[in-house]
Design brief:
The protein has helices at 6-10, 17-33, 51-57, 70-83, 120-130, 163-172, and strands at residues 41-45, 62-67, 88-92, 105-111, 131-142, 176-189, 195-206. It is α/β, with parallel strands linked by helices. Helix 5 (120-130) crosses helix 6 (163-172). It is globular.
């Protein structure tokens, strides 16, 4: 997964107004449910160009921005250097298929990455592995859709998610106090020329 990808190709033009607006809405929703403070180590899974990581870095003690796209993380590295942000580090790696420290993080955040992960059950197990006891996750992604959200479905393994499927995967991994709610809506032009109304959920839980 570390080779060239569609994300590598589009990294330089990734930070569009709709994506920035979505990241802002997701982070605000996360902050309503999780009290992020300077004592916390946060993992942003699928960080991309760091729209969520940079927001979290303003509250957390340390943020690890993890992604499998080196080009995306290079854009984030430039931001961190330009803004002299020192509490965020990038990690070009794969949480699902690589070994990571257990009990490392207080919080895992993620936005619009889950549908690109084929084995979500395994992912939630990995989340559980790297979270400290009492650690939390807050994951935002698409509510179930018809497969028209993306212009190109290459690398898309799920057309959104149902609440029941996510609850089952997270509960099987050992998470509790699960909560799923719609926190944002976005209009997006579909590849057939029509405009779709898409719902974004925030799914949370703790170890």
């Amino acid at each position: 997964m570390k080779g060239a990808s569609i994300f590598d190709v589009h990294a330089g033009s990734w930070d569009t107004a709709p994506r920035m607006s979505l990241a802002k809405a997701v982070f605000e929703a996360i902050c309503q449910r999780v009290a992020i403070d300077t004592s916390m180590k946060v993992l942003d899974f699928g960080a991309g160009t760091g729209l969520l990581s940079v927001a979290a870095g303003g509250c957390a003690g340390e943020v690890t921005a993890m992604d499998t796209s080196g080009k995306m993380l290079a854009v984030l590295d430039d931001k961190l250097r330009d803004r002299e942000i020192r509490n965020i580090r990038t990690c070009h790696c794969d949480l699902v298929n690589e070994t990571h420290l257990r009990g490392e993080y207080d919080l895992i955040i993620s936005s619009m990455t889950l549908h690109h992960v084929k084995d979500t059950a395994l992912l939630f197990t990995r989340f559980h592995d790297v979270l400290k006891t009492g650690g939390e996750f807050a994951v935002a992604d698409l509510d179930a859709e018809d497969g028209m959200f993306h212009t190109d479905n290459t690398g898309v393994h799920h057309f959104g998610f149902s609440r029941d499927a996510l609850f089952a995967a997270a509960a099987d991994a050992g998470f509790r106090n699960l909560r799923y709610e719609i926190v944002h809506r976005m209009e997006k032009k579909r590849r057939d020329g029509t405009v779709g109304d898409y719902r974004i959920f925030l799914f949370t839980g703790n170890t």
